[in-house]
Amino acid sequence: MTLQTSNNNELKVSDTVAHSGETQTPLSDAQASLNKLHSFISLKNTSRPLLCPNPIDLGNGLVLRRAEPGDRDELAAFNAHIHFPSGGRGTFDYFSPSNFEGAEHPTTDHTNFTVVVDTAKNNKIVSSVWSVPQIWYYGNPDTLATESNALETGVPIVVVRPEGVGTDEEYRGHGLIKKHMDVHHEWARALGSPLQFIGGMPQYYCRFGYECAPERIAGVGGTLASLEPLIKKKDPRFQVRQATLDDVDFIMTTVRVNSSRRDGIWTDVDQFGWTSIMKGPYHHYVVEFVSDSPESSKEPVRIGFVEFKSYSGNIQRLELADTDVASWEDFTSAVLAFVPQFHKEVMAGVKKQIQAPYTAPRKMKNSNTLPNDWQFFLSLGARHPAYKSVAATCLPLKRDPYYWFTRIESVQHLLNTYTFSITKSDYNAGGAPLIRLREARFGSVIEKGGQFVTFQGNTATRIRYGHPKCVDVLDVLFPRMAND
Ligand SMILES: CC(C)(COP(=O)(O)OP(=O)(O)OC[C@H]1O[C@@H](n2cnc3c(N)ncnc32)[C@H](O)[C@@H]1OP(=O)(O)O)[C@@H](O)C(=O)NCCC(=O)NCCS
């Protein structure tokens, strides 16, 4: 079975999708399949299909084209104006072969942007959209993920995520975004991406075929007062240090194993991706355990990893490694006790710069203070083991979920390409529903043993009453369409 792409690049699904279930794929095959997908969408793939291969005349002097290196300063200033200063700095970075932090994004540079220019106004940029290709993993809880089999427990899918949607005030209301979207969706097809996700304004993206689907950004949070008990009883055996490139393998494996155990869907990052992310604007720390027993080794043992969001300083990844020297409680307590210090030493300066008007990118400086109303969030989704590992009074703030909007260009094509079965797993620590995909015909999967649901016959009713959590997953894959 193949995914036929628009410019005749055939992506053979059997080459790219990890199989699971009765015919277990050896790890090396799963790894090879995944590597192949990462390489295909990588900027380093010289035969990666081009976004908007040729300029498109939109009439009235307007031309839609792919961004060019010479657009850097104007497009960065445009995005700083339309979105926010950090949007401008982010745009600027994508135009540099290696940005101001020395990072190189694995899949995105200026060629991922489209712009509309007005030829009557000296080719002024009046509208822009860009897209990030990623690999999203759909998890399978049937196997308890371990370091050696984590990649066999799900199916990787190429996902294209449009971002940075904006039009100059004077040019709005003329359907320019539709023109961009058509081109970005065409590119998604060329990359073999059956799903597109966008995070943004409710109501707007449905006009381009997007429907509200997976949750994002939900979380819990705290204040200095709520964290005080954890700071006071901080255990000196758990130390938080900045991550280095030597930690890449540890971080990649820890994230993969935990994500496959817990999440229905996650974004997979390979070694090159992590190396790039670690050099970029996010802030990465590793928590280590150093024994205080005279008989034990004083060699630090890495127990987990934390990623703070670049501009807010909220925590967006928090993962405990498989270790017998620390529990979720030890790990989360150590991280939470560190958060105010991190905000003082790093984020206070970052936030100052974010609020400043956009000029040109420069290194962020410190101011070493926290405002009286300081608060922070663990943006780890609606459910996460960390939330239950400290007293609820430490994390009294709640952030409601927001949503990804999902576009499935052809549900029929998706169903013919993958088989879906939905499972509620004992291994799912967060209690979230998990989904399993296999290359096969829709509706043909029957698993032996365990709880399972397929979409055959009258199973919609069964899902609703027998497996209510699965309804969430159905919403992800088969969101309500505009004409439902
Ligand atoms: C939203 C935006 C990109 C639309 O650009 P545009 O070139 O005017 O896009 P289109 O012409 O395709 O769409 C305009 C339509 O979207 C509607 N629209 C604009 N903002 C909207 C919103 N927040 N929610 C729902 N609809 C919205 C307009 O009312 C108009 O409707 P109409 O076609 O029925 O008259 C533009 O208003 C903009 O740049 N806004 C600021 C940046 C922003 O918010 N970007 C999106 C971040 S998720």
How would you characterize this protein structure?
InterPro entries: Acyl_CoA_acyltransferase. By secondary structure, this protein is of the alpha+beta class. The chain folds into three domains: 2-209, Aminopeptidase; 219-399, 3-Layer(aba) Sandwich (Aminopeptidase), CATH 3.40.630; 410-484, no CATH class. It has helices spanning 13-16, 27-41, 72-82, 85-95, 176-190, 224-232, 248-262, 271-279, 328-355, 411-417, 459-466, 468-477, and strands at 2-4, 10-12, 56-59, 62-66, 113-118, 124-139, 154-167, 195-199, 211-216, 219-223, 238-242, 265-268, 283-289, 301-308, 315-320, 375-378, 397-399, 402-408, 419-423, 434-438. Strand 1 and strand 2 (10-12) form a beta hairpin. Helix 3 packs antiparallel against helix 4 (85-95), helix 6 (224-232) packs across helix 9 (328-355) and helix 7 crosses helix 8 (271-279). 42% of the residues are buried. Coenzyme A binds at residues 82, 127, 165-167, 172-178, 200-201, 203-204.
Helix/strand layout:
Layout: E1 2-4, E2 10-12, H1 13-16, H2 27-41, E3 56-59, E4 62-66, H3 72-82, H4 85-95, E5 113-118, E6 124-139, E7 154-167, H5 176-190, E8 195-199, E9 211-216, E10 219-223, H6 224-232, E11 238-242, H7 248-262, E12 265-268, H8 271-279, E13 283-289, E14 301-308, E15 315-320, H9 328-355, E16 375-378, E17 397-399, E18 402-408, H10 411-417, E19 419-423, E20 434-438, H11 459-466, H12 468-477
Parallel strand pairs: 7-8
Antiparallel strand pairs: 1-2, 3-4, 4-5, 5-6, 6-7, 6-12, 8-18, 9-18, 10-16, 10-17, 11-13, 13-14, 14-15, 19-20
The protein binds coenzyme A.
Coenzyme A is lined by residues 82, 127, 165-167, 172-178, 200-201, 203-204.
